[in-house]
User: Fold this.
Amino acid sequence: MSLLREHLGLPGKKLIGERLRALAARPNPRPLFVFGNQKSGTTAIAGLLAAATQRRATLDFAGATEPHIGRLLRRETPLADFVRHNSWAFSAQIVKEPNLTFAAPQLMEHFAAPRAVFIVRDPRDNIRSILDRLELPGDLESLDVESVRANRTWRSLLAGRDLGLAEDHYIATLAWRWLRAIEILQSARARFVLLRYEDFKVDRPGAIAQLAEELELDATRDIGALEQHSFQRPGTPRPAREFFGRKNLGRIESICGTAAAALGYSATG
Assistant:
């Protein structure tokens, strides 16, 4: 039924519920945004930050899926209208939705947000995790995106349609997406509190405590019991060369290598 609703362009139950709640909600005048590419650890970090600081968080929302997010990113939907339609989602103190990363500068200007959190992850692991989520291999010579068993939002992401990326190999498209997110980070570096997912994994409580301190938030709750909680389905890590193969790994490193090195990620050995 969900695929039929998508084919007919009908809103799902989650979106209908959000729209109904939006009727009685007001956007938070200054939410804390947590940005980052899909599958870079934004859910875990935003969830633990919300728990530690005892703040309400929106962790993804249907109003930021296709076709709505594409219209926003293409400037077909004015940002003020997008916020109004999703006022329930924006009423939280912490708002995390990876699709919003690509409208980060406009959102921060709209809400006069002085700072936001930006999560980054090694592009090879980030892209592998996206493909794991979609149960896709990384070493294909080509991929028919429309044949992928995923919703409209994920197919748009794979094809680069939401960002208006030129048609390319699916691995290259995901690499360009990662780079686009990093370019947004670099465009206003002083306004973002940067956290690498790899550093978070080493010491979750410590990373969250430091993040809260940099944001001048009181982390009053012990999150030890939540430390190993899985906020999303875990992937199955494999060495990059094994997962992507030489040619596809080369695509990632050619596109992302310079930016990745600047973030402290070394080349594949």
In short: Strands lie at 32-36, 57-59, 94-96, 116-120, 192-196. Residues 240-262 form the longest helix (23 residues).
